[in-house]
Write a structure and sequence with these properties.
130 residues, alpha+beta, 17% strand
Length: 130
C-alpha cells in the first residue's frame, strides 16, 4: 500500500510540475531547485524508494526529465534533504539536446551516474562553470 501511495504522490507531483512549467515558465518553476538548499537541510535521508516512485511516472504522457526532476527535487527538499536539480546540454548535429536530473551530495539520484559526461552540466548559481 505504501508503494501505491508513493506512486500516486509522485504522479501528482510530476503533473503539478509539468503544469507549473507551462503556466509560470522555467525560471519561476525551477529557480529554487537549481541552487543548494539552506544549510539547515537534513543529511541522513535514504531517498531510494522516493526516487523509484518518481522514475515510474515516466509513463505519463506529459512527464519529461525536467518535470520529473523538478518534482523529485521538491519532494526531497520537503523532507529537508539537500537535493539539487542539474541541467545539462550536448550538441546533437546542428541542434542541441538538454537533460535534467537530481543530485544529492554530488551523487546522481534519478539517472545514470555517467549522465554528466553525456550532458555536461550548465553552470548553476551554487557552483562555478566546469
Amino acid at each position: 500500500m505504501a508503494s501505491l501511495t508513493s506512486l500516486a504522490a509522485a504522479m501528482f507531483g510530476v503533473s503539478r510540475a509539468a503544469l507549473t512549467l507551462r503556466s509560470r515558465g522555467f525560471a519561476a518553476a525551477c529557480g529554487s531547485c537549481l541552487v543548494a538548499p539552506p544549510s539547515g537541510a537534513a543529511d541522513d535521508g535514504h531517498p531510494e524508494r522516493l526516487v523509484r516512485s518518481y522514475a515510474r511516472t515516466a509513463i505519463l504522457p506529459w512527464s519529461t526529465c525536467l518535470s520529473r526532476s523538478l518534482a523529485l527535487c521538491r519532494a526531497l527538499r520537503r523532507r529537508r534533504l539537500p537535493a539539487v536539480m542539474r541541467l545539462g546540454a550536448a550538441r546533437d548535429g546542428p541542434g542541441l539536446k538538454a537533460h535534467a536530473w537530481v543530485e544529492m551530495h554530488g551523487r546522481v539520484l534519478n539517472d545514470s551516474t555517467t549522465i554528466a559526461a553525456v550532458f555536461p552540466p550548465l553552470a548553476a548559481p551554487d557552483r562555478p562553470p566546469p
